[in-house]
Amino acid sequence: MIDLYTWTTPNGRKVSILLEELGVPYKVHSIDISNKEQFAPDFLKISPNNRIPAIVDHDTGVTMMESGSIMLYLSEKYKRFIPHGEHKWEAIEWLMWQMGGIGPMLGQVHHFVKYNPGKSEYSEERYTTEALRLYSVLDRKLEGRKFVAGAGAGEYSITDMAIWPWISRFDWQKIELNQFKNVKDWYVRIADRPAVQRGYQIPKFVTEIPLP
Ligand SMILES: N[C@@H](CCC(=O)N[C@@H](CS)C(=O)NCC(=O)O)C(=O)O
Q: What's the pTM?
């Protein structure tokens, strides 16, 4: 059994979507980051960086923070949702792109554009420009493909699951998704998956999945 410590955010949803796709039993623990629960001493023992998501895998004794690492761990444990051979590295390459680019940069867009508009014109412009650049990169990668990494037109993998929850906040980012046709088609394709719809509502319902 796996304990999942999470909240209703893109990084949290990455892992709940993967656990739903895997169909393995897990127990959800809500860490309300708006209530500073991520700073509780007991949570610090599980997630030394005071951030969600984190897991405790009681089958193996592994305790882990960092969503990218958790996704690699689970995909290796269950031998699913990671392409084989050379495409494994393509999947990891684009997973790292999400971890280093999409996550931190779109997180800043949420901070300045959604929650603090007017406080720093420079920051709003800088992170919006960066968001548009990252959406363009993803749009080019998805040209002629169904999924980000993998053989042929791509295989649905942890890489898609890591990027998708950040794109699901396109309205927060004031991104016109129709401007990025390949991203939009990919986004809707993944939004259609029952496991994604379940994982999106962990640890609780906030809204339906936004659709363009
Ligand atoms: N690189 C980390 C980032 C985790 C992260 O930033 N989590 C946010 C929610 S999406 C959080 O816990 N924020 C709490 C805080 O800022 O205090 C990961 O991918 O797991």
A: 0.98
